[in-house]
Every structure is written in C-alpha cells, then in structure tokens.
Specification:
Keywords: Membrane, Transmembrane, Transmembrane helix. This protein is mainly α. 79% of the residues lie in helices and 0% in strands.
C-alpha cells in the first residue's frame, strides 16, 4: 500500500480500538485519567504498527503501554499479551485482504474488550450486542464482492432487523447503516483496505449519535 493509505489504515485501527468504548464510557474514564492515557496510547501505537513504518518500534511502544496497563490492572495481562501477539502475527504474515481484515476485526473486538475490563471490569451484555451488530455489518460489507447481491441484501436486512428487534438500533441508526449497505452494494471489486477498516468506526458513530438523539 502507498504510505498515505497505510496511514489511513493505521488510523482506522486506532479509532476502532478506542472510539466506541471512549464514547460509551465517558462518565467512567473521567475518573481514571492514567488508565485512559494508557489505553489511548496503546490504541495509537497499535495503529502505527499497522502502517508498516518501523513496525517493530511501534510494537515495542505498544508493549510499554501494555506494561503500564498491566501494572494498573494486573488481570488485563492475558488480554494484553494476546493483543500484542496478534498484532505481531497480523503485521508480519501475508494473506488475502478480506481474510486479514476479518482477523483484524476480531482483534479490534479484543482491543475494545480491554477498555471495558479496564474501566468497568466487565462487558455489559448490551454493549456486547452493539459490538456484535457493528462487526457483523462490517464483515458483510467486507465480503460483499464475493457474495451474490440477493445474499448481501438478505444478510444486511437480517442485521438491521436483529438490531431493531433487540432494541439496539433506532430508526436513525438503521437509516444510516442502510445507506452504507446500499453504497457498498454495487462495486463488484474490493475497495481499498483502509475503506473497509473505517467501516466499524462509521457504524459506531451512527449507532451512538442516533441513540443520543432519541
């Protein structure tokens, strides 16, 4: 990838790791500034590792932030170790873009799990449902060029219906997510990797902003 697209890809990683929990846990992190700085530092350094600019340096910096977080919350250590190992594996192995991004999405779920366990010591079921809906939608959009259009439409409709039925998506969020589904329904070739990498970020924003507006 050209350097500018690598930068966008890394930015998508950092935002995926931090944005949803940062917006969701605002009342909590204001009282945990040291933890917050460690979590943000880890998210940014992980994103920079994925730019492939001196990746080992940034992975080393990620390790320092992981040590800080483990010192503050020792029970985070296993999750942090898995996060670092996954980052090393996914930035050093060559694989097809959809496969890589599918694994990255899984890693970003883990990254957000670390935020929740660090700040509220658990992952509430409604937040788990939110993240499940976001990443199910992102995966369907990612694999769209390899799906028949009727299959893509049915899967997209199923995710939106599930979110509405579970009362986690209101009308505003459904409209926003449906627009993204429609925009990605027509290209038969995969888009640039960074585009798919920012999809969970956009979906998170639609969900949280629409919910805040009632």
């Amino acid at each position: 990838m050209p350097k500018i697209t690598q930068l966008f890809f890394g930015l998508g990683i950092a935002l995926q790791a931090a944005l949803f929990p940062w917006l969701t846990l605002r009342p909590v992190w204001r009282d945990n500034q040291t933890l917050l700085l460690g979590l943000i530092g880890l998210a940014i350094s992980l994103g920079l590792t994925y730019t492939h600019w001196h990746s080992l340096w940034w992975l080393g910096l990620s390790s320092l932030f992981a040590i800080l977080l483990a010192g503050l919350q020792p029970r985070l250590l296993p999750l942090l170790l898995v996060q670092l190992v996954l980052t090393w594996l996914l930035t050093t192995q060559k694989m097809q873009t959809p496969t890589l991004l599918s694994l990255v999405f899984g890693q970003m779920l883990l990254a957000q799990l670390i935020w929740f366990f660090a700040l509220v010591h658990s992952l509430p079921i409604y937040n788990l449902i939110d993240l499940g809906l976001i990443y199910l939608a992102a995966l369907i959009m990612l694999w769209q060029p390899r799906l028949p259009r009727w299959g893509y439409a049915l899967l997209g409709l199923a995710v939106l219906s599930l979110g509405y039925g579970l009362q986690r998506l209101n009308l505003g969020a459904i409209i926003g997510m449906a627009i993204i589904f429609l925009l990605l329904a027509f290209p038969k070739k995969s888009l640039a990797p960074w585009v798919y990498n920012v999809l969970p970020v956009l979906l998170s924003v639609f969900m949280i902003v629409a919910r805040s507006q009632g």
